[in-house]
Amino acid sequence: MLLIHPPIAKPCEPPAGIIRLAGALRGHGLPCTLLDASLEGLLFLLATPVSATDNWSRRAGRDVDTNLAALRSQELYRNPDRYRRAVADVNRVMELAGRPHLQLNLANYQDKVLSPIKSADLLRAAARPEGNIFYPYFSRRLSELIDKTQPAMVGFSLNYLSQALCTFAMIGFIKQHYPLLPVVLGGGLITSWLSNPGWRNPFAGLVDHLVAGPGEEPLLLLMGVSQQPRHHRPDFTGLPLTDYLAPGFILPYAASSGCYWNKCSFCPEKAEGNPYRALPPEQVLDDIKQLTAQTQPVLLHLLDNAVNPALMRALADRPPGVNWYGFARVSPLLTDRNFCRALRRSGCLMLKLGLESGDQGVLDAMDKGISLALVSEALEGLKQAGIATYVYLLFGTPTETLTQARRTLDFAVAHHEAITFLNLAVFNMPVCGPDAHNLQISDFYEGDLSLYTDFAHPLGWHRSKVRRFLDREFKRHPAIAAIIRRDPHLFTSNHAPFFNVPAFQRLSV
User: Nearest CA to 507 among 272, 322, 350?
Assistant: First the structure.
């Protein structure tokens, strides 16, 4: 089987979906080939000469190889200004490559004509694959791999809207040149589409199989394996592990799927009904030990929606021997200063925390299950332990007003020394969420595959007002502006742990 991660997604680390599937297939004696077409496609475009008239563009084109090498070295991350310039220059080459029809960068692909949330446009991309900017790359690469390996199926892992148009262009190429070769389509975006009660498959005749949720068992069944699938570690064999844009190999690992809390209002995990499944901590630690011995990573990225308390305790008790970071719920565990120090000794460089609001009433309405007093204690404990925090805030939820948003600003300012990075988002209502039925809704984006719906805010705190508050008030506060300036350009949380430099250096040397 040929498993493909399509363009475009951030090229920092191997794609988690296809390495997990490869582990399951190979563990059951089924050969497979992995293709990170996102990474390879981006590097293909960056190696293609582009015409430039201004000094910045000429410099960016001239220095692209130097900047790519710098992004793969630890030295660059010790100088934030040089890092920002290197990322901006590489990204400039991508922008130039996409003109005039695409808004293209290292993390996104936006067509000015075709929309990834219109099934008719995805089908147009499949009908005319030669119109895709990556066609010179994937037409050669797919032919080479299919002719060489003779796969029984081709599977695509489609997780982001930024990948959708390229995915369907590649599927269209396969169906034109290998019409008898079955195509399987899965991944996070497919799971979201299939979870919509109003889903009607518009891709029949093009895509042979659509898979929602974890794909190991469905894929094994398609390949003729009927027994209950056993657990197997992710398998990276065949991927170019030294080509990713990071200062060393980042090991992605998912210890669970779904969310162990699974109560937050308006959360896509809850709206889509995704069940929570977790591996035993002993199995996780054994997997990580084996994988780190094989790949020698500089960083472990735990992909869980939230690392559960049992695993967090296990990591503190049995350090994995490599720096790590991931999402965590704010919990009483993180208010224990001794535990936070143990986490730091285990290699924890950074925790991503979904705070959402600095107003207790908004948190309670969202059923977050946390108090602001708890958050304050946790932030202070993590700061004292030397663990960076990447705090996520969400504005414009149905119970929030300007007054509550300002309380969030006050909370962030009061804790600015303990907040290393910030992610600010405007609330989107999941189209299939039960809460949408209680509000006056309207089309958010024009498209039959949209994941979100617009709504009339019951308290008048509409999106335009939220954005105005963020731009004119929240981001302009000096304490907040300083935090925002620290955020790694484009790569955001994927590169943020490398800027906890003293901690990173201590465990990586």
Answer: 322
User: Residue 366 carries which DSSP code?
Assistant: T
Total domains present in the chain: 2
Query: Does pLDDT of 267 surpass 80?
Result: no
Nearest by Cα to 258 from 197, 187, 306, 300: 306
Given a cut of 90, is residue 501 above it in pLDDT?
no
- Residue 456 confidence (pLDDT): 87
Contacts of 436 (CB under 8 A, 6+ apart): 429, 430, 453, 455
Give residues with Cβ within 8 angstroms of 40, minimum separation 6: 137, 141, 240
| pLDDT for res 229 | 67
If asked whether residues 77 and 189 sit together in one domain, one would say: yes
**Residues for the chain: how many in total?**
509
User: What are φ and ψ of residue 287, in 5° steps?
Assistant: -60, -45
With cut-offs at 50, 70 and 90, classify the pLDDT of residue 443: low
State the virtual CA torsion across 44, 48, 54, 56 in degrees, nearest 10: 40
* 453 within some domain: yes
Under the banding of pLDDT at 50, 70 and 90, the label for residue 298 is very high
The DSSP output letter for 74 is S
In one-letter notation, the amino acid at residue 185 is L
Q: Do the Cβ atoms of 18 and 184 come closer than 8 Å?
A: no
Mean pLDDT score, 16-29: 95
Asked, for residue 128, whether it belongs to a domain, the answer is yes
Query: Is the model's pLDDT at 406 over the cut of 90?
Result: yes
Does some domain include residue 239? no
CATH code of the domain covering residue 348: 3.80.30.20
Query: What global pTM score does this model have?
Result: 0.95
Q: 162-196 pLDDT, tens per residue?
A: 999 999 999 999 999 999 999 999 999 999 999 88
C-beta atoms surrounding 67 within 10 Å: 25
Residues whose CB is less than 8 angstroms from the CB of residue 169 and which lie 6 or more positions away in sequence, other chains included: 125, 126, 128, 129, 131, 132, 134, 135, 138
Structural contact between residues 377 and 418, judged by C-beta atoms closer than 8 angstroms: no
DSSP 473: I
In whole angstroms, give the CA distance from residue 30 to residue 426: 44
Helix (H) or strand (E) holding 424: strand 421-426
291 lies in which domain range?
Answer: 250-508
pLDDT at 505: 52
Alpha-carbon separation of residue 396 from 232, 406, 436 (angstroms) = 42, 12, 14
pLDDT at 399: 93
Whether 241 is covered by a domain: the verdict is: no
Digit-coded pLDDT (tens) for 30-42 = 999 999 999 999 9
Taking the mean position of all CA atoms in its chain, how far away is CA 328? Answer: 15
Our measurement of the distance from residue 69's CA atom to the centroid of its chain's CA atoms, rounded to an integer in Å, reads 23
HEC secondary structure over 433-459:
CHHHHHCCEEECCCCCCCCEEEECCCC
Cβ partners under 8 Å of residue 485, min gap 6? none
Predicted confidence (pLDDT) per residue in 209-235, tens digit: 999 988 999 999 999 998 776 889 999
DSSP annotation of 212 reads -
